[in-house]
Write a structure and sequence with these properties.
The protein is mainly α and about 60 residues long. It is built from four helices and no strands.
Length: about 60
Amino acid sequence: MSDEDTIGAGDRQDLTAAEYVLGTLDPAERAGFERRLAGSEPARRAVEEWSRRLGPLALASGDV
């Protein structure tokens, strides 16, 4: 069973928002998610929440 079989749409969006904040999406995925952000308040809230959660980690690690 793959993750796609067990992860609902809301969870997938939340995980994609986390990957977006971490910068781990490939360019096509990032562009697609940014298009979704333009029209989705839940997606924007997810990015804001992950930014808040992961911000301290980003500050501690510096640029790579």
